[in-house]
Every structure is written in structure tokens, then in C-alpha cells.
Give the backbone structure.
Amino acid sequence: MAASAKDLNQFKVLIAGGSLVGLGLALAFERAGIDYELFEKGEFAPQLGASIGIHPHTIRILEQLGVWSDIEKQVVPLQNRNHYDENGRCFEESHVLEHIQKILRRPIIFMERCKALEILHEHVQDKSKLHPHRAVVAYEETAEGVIVKTDDGVQHHGHILIGADGIHSKVRKLMADKISQTNELLAEEINQAFSSEYNCIFAVSRNGPDKQLLPDAMVHNVYYHKHSVVSAAGVHGLVFWFLFIKAAELTRTPNCPKFTEEDAEACIAKYGDSLVGPGYTVKDLWDARVKATMVPLEEGVIKYWSHNRVVLMGDAVHKATVNPGLGGNLAYEGIARLTNGLIGLLKEYPTPSLEQLNQVFDSYIAGQKPRAEAVVNLSGQITRYEAQDTWILKFAAKNIVPWVSDNLKAQLYASFSRGGPWLEYLPLPAGDRDLMNATQETSRLIPSLITAGLALAAAAALLCQRWN
């Protein structure tokens, strides 16, 4: 049952960033009776960005928040996944997504990011707490709390500030500036924590009925040398797709590249003839696009997640490449961990001390950081695996992974998914009550599987060399 607003309303959270993470925090705090104010520099549901992948452990949280039923109406659960080589040969027909849905009783989905934002925003009951076109530009801490200044010159008082403002986080930069006054090296590590070795065009394109590029519920993966493509038909009439390309050099924040429409056009001119699935190319997807963006794929986990009354969440603190679609889901795990900790504290201490708040932050970080590091590492390996970055990865993709059964892959994924947290102050859906005894140590199985697979691939390749 949600905590009483009467018990918790003396405490106020200030949130920077109103995208999927910020709105998720708003819903979680509203359901808990924790007062908050949310500041977003733009609109709450802009027609920007392409898609968001939502996995079963995040769907569980969305069910608890009461928003899943509206999201479910928008999507077609992904069921099948075909893998193609550079010559258009299908070397693996996978039903692992269907197996995952049977095991976990929830699907993996893709949907338009703007639609997800619209639904989350609609479900916030008190819209007066949401402030669009109001960017956080500075903050100061006092003995009692934190004062945030927005770009309209207004000051806002709260007890903690959460930086949920993405990879280009203003709050992270402000926090690093504070830290630099006593530790310049740590501040530099925070500012340069993310690297980028791959670039990506991600887009939404029309998918029929006059020309259906791939059937609903289908995912196509095609593997080239130093680039790859993924397309997914997760919504009727649309296809979400990603062109991944290895960059000429590794860059690091804050100096990762920014791309223009002309850069994207030049990329399509170079890779447009690449087949994605039977009968269609990257250029076909591009010509049918509704919207498209080219970005660098930053990846990394920062060293320091909080400072005094400020704590970071989502892409502001951990950034994964998008191939497996786990980054946004990782952020919702963070929402659950931090909110659970705050509610437990506020029930006992309605006006907690800085030391008590830091203990909650430390607990959130201790639970979230190992999982973040595992997801970021796994996602990076999958990006390089699909782009055939090394001979070991190429050998594994064609000769080992297809022989691993879909059921085993699904079971291992299910172990990872079950390890995700949930909102402990809200009722679990009936089918999840057995999770109370689940251990989150199972999240380590997936990275272990990849490591073992790569080692097996290397050993097999060496044996082949000896036989030759």
C-alpha cells in the first residue's frame, strides 16, 4: 500500500529531467505520497527520438504504477528474430522472444518513445508538479536542503535533487563542478566517464500496408564487418530500425561527436545498399522514414553517483549501447531502488538528516552499480558481436551461438530479468509474488554466458587452426 501523503509531505524531491526516467520518478513518488517538483527544459512528450525497448522486469514496475495497460494497447509483442549474414543468408531463425514471454508471462516490446512519454505524462495526477520549458541551471546546498535555480530565474527549495537529465546531464556537470573544488581529478573522471566507439542512425519508418518491409512481431538482425542493422516491427504500420557503424576513432565525453542531417545522408549513401532482411535494404528503410537521428553511442558507468544532497540516475550515471535495448530498463531499476529506500527512511524519519539521506543513496548505488556495470559491459559486447568487430565474434555468431537452444537462452535471460527490483511499497501483481524470495545474484548469469561463449569460440577457432 502506498505510504500516506500526510506522513511524507514534509519532504520534497526536486527532479531535473522530464523524459522517461523523470516521469517514471514522478509517478513513483506520487504513488508513494512523496512531494516533488519536476523541471524539464523542453516539452514532456516531444516528437523526438525513435523508440524505446521495454523488457519484462520494467513492465512489472509499469504494472505497479498502473500504466502498462495503456502501453500494451499501443504495441505488438515481439515474437520472432531472424539473423542474416552479409550475403542475405539467414543463419539462425530464433524464437527466443516467444520463449521469454512464455517463461516470464510478459513480452519484450518496442514502441515510439513519444507515445510512451505521452502515456506516462497522462497518468501523473497532479500536473502542477510538472514544469516544462524550465531548465535547471544551478543549485546550492544549505544545512536544511537544496535550492535549485531554473532558467527563468526562479529558485525552488527541496531536500534532495535528482539528476535524471540524460547523457548530457546539467546536474552531473554542476555536481562535478562542486567536487572539483576539493578533488579536481575525480571531477575530471566524472566529466570524461563515457566513451564512444560506435555511431548509430536510429529511426522509425512506415511498414505497409502498401509495402510491408517485415511482418509484425518480427525482428531482423544483419551482421556485416564493422557495421550491423537491426529492424523490429513492434507497432502496427511501423518499423523501428538501427544502423550501427564503428567510428574512425574512439572519443570521450564531453567531446563525443554531434551529427547533422547531412552526416546521416552521407552515411546512408555509403551503407544504403546493405540488405537488412529479405527484399529490403537500409535505403528502403531510410526512404520510408517518419523520423531519424544520428548519434554517437556513448557507453560507461561514472565513478561517483552522488554528492551530499544530489544523486544521479539513468543515462546521467550509466549509459549502455542500444543493441539489446536494456539502458532505459536499467533506469527503471534505479527508480525502484531509490524510491524504495527513500520511503523506508521517510516513514521513520519524516525530516531525515544529510547522513541518513546519504545512507539511502549509498544503498541505491550499492544495489544498482553492479547491475549497471554488467548491463553496460554486456551491451557493448553485443554491439561489437553484431558488427563482427573481431574474428572471435564472427566465428561465435556463425558457428556457436546458433547452436545454443532458444529455450536455454530464454532461461538465462529470465534469470537476469527476475533479478530486477520492483516497487516494494506497491502490491506486486499476483503472478510475481514468488519474487519475494528471488535473488538478484542471477543477474550475473548473462555476462557469464557471453564470456563463456567467447572463450569457447576462441578455443574452437584455435582447434580449427591446428587441424588445418
About this structure: The chain has one domain: 5-193+300-460. The mean pLDDT is 90.
